[in-house]
Amino acid sequence: MIPQIMGVLFDGFAYGMLLFLLSVGLSVTLGLMNFINLAHGSFAMVGGYVTFSLMNYAGWPFFATLPMAFVVTAVVSVVFERTLFRRLYRATELNQVLLTIGLVFVAAAVAAYIFGTVQQPIQLPDYLRGSVEVAGLRLGIYRIFLIGVALAITALLIAGVEMTRFGAQVRAAVDNQRVATGLGINVEGVFAVAFALGSGLAGLGGALAIEIVGLDPSFGFQFLVYVLIVVSVGGLGSIGGSFAAAALLGISDVAGKYYVPELGAFMLYALMVGLLMYRPRGLFGKRS
Amino acid sequence: MSAPTESVPDPHLYLERQTRWGPIEIAFWLALLLPFILVPTYLNLASQIAITALFAVSVDLILGYAGIISLGHAVYFGVGSYTAGLLSKWGWGEPLTGLVMAALLATLVGYLTSFIIVRVRHLALIMITLGLGFLSVEAANSAGWLTGGADGLQGVSMWPLFAQFDFDLWGYTAYAYSLAVLFLVFLLCRRLVFSPFGLSLRGIRENLSRMPAIGAPSRFRLMKIYTISAGIAGIAGALLAQTTETVSLEVLSFQRSADVVVMLILGGTGRLYGGIVGAVIFMVARDQLADMNPQYWYFWIGLLLIAVVLFLPNGILGGLARLVPSRRRAA
Fold it and tell me: What is the model's pTM?
């Protein structure tokens, strides 16, 4: 009984870390510009396809493709940000939602055109496969790896936001954009960089997600809801909040599917609606 | 859209002028009768379009007039559908009473959820409507004993309309019935949005915090319009169940909620006709294009959405209205 619970907790936490990577960028950019970017999941899909293509067509090793997934996604996203998204920073939420959902549609169709609609598998290196036994628990090596990556990135992010000059500018811009501009911070520039970094992380998340959840053209849609739940429950612009919300969501999703499969995702959505009803700004959000 | 400020000495006069029927409007409704003569083989599609248009009008009431973004309005559509379908399955196949029952139940559900809706705004609002939509799908799916689950509701069979007109294979009755309901509900909505209540909704849309300051508390008004809109969506859902004699989980799906918003944006929000025009274009295009290339249908929808947001922020009707400067609201 106990090992089983621990196993579910472990799998759920690993899944949550994946969700964290996929969503933390959106949390920060939403907090910065109030720009509702529903195409965030599609950027993650770009990262997934970068890794898939490099491994299967160019024969790159898995690890070498990960930085590329990050970089390519970051570059793609910043192109979109500079050409399309920035026109809508002052537009209504509805227009932002529609433009970005249009982008999701287009991205899914383009991915289906290039790669087909089937799931694209990748061959992991041997040392990431299988599982190890720790204190009577069988833990998947890939999941341990995933948790390690996510924790390292969380540490990097928190250190970056708390200790660097750029991090201070981001915090200032999230807290109060007008005052930050008044103090000479180039908010648009800060935003472009933060947007690229956040989308790059989503791309990395997309690449890491292939092994756990698979990759097909509907990726951008499937994870959109999860990503939005993490962001809205965690609170905008809060890295710690996203981390907690992602871990909570991952664990409850895996536990729910394991223990009460007949309820499906019902509990999850009910929990989210209930939580947002009483805390519209999320668990750790400063503003909505 | 922007209320004229220069030439309005008396708001009542302004509203009265708005409510007058223009020749374009009359021509528009007469044109909706044309399918009977021109494309009698497509009346089933026409009926579906009329139903979707009604759904779009219900969303326009909250989105276009009151500024409530909803990505889960299919909840009420679905409640209406299942109510009408279940009534018929349980042996009461009379269409009109089924319609009324569906409207009542959807209104009730709308009223209950409106308490949640008015509490939140921005991202939380989008997430809550989305969440309610998914919740309803999950609920209907697990309540298989009631709804038939993923297999859909079997055994829906409608009695003739007015005990006279059978729901025929060609869709004559279906289209006439749907169009008549669409028109009647539209009259109601038209009356509603040009009333002082409708005007106050537009004020709330433009500035939520200023309206209470000038004596129009927003909370109750928002709940009211949301409830009405839910009821209308329920009527649309019931129409679909009755004319197609099937109900599937699809009536509650996110796809339906999202598509209707797309149609509305395409046609133009906040002008009632936008939803109808958008539904006609969207459904006809889908019918034509889906045969050729179903997989890439959403590619074009996506491009269209991006283009509309960037170049036609007020939709097709908004663009047309700009071409006709002499009449402030051409359509």
Answer: 0.85
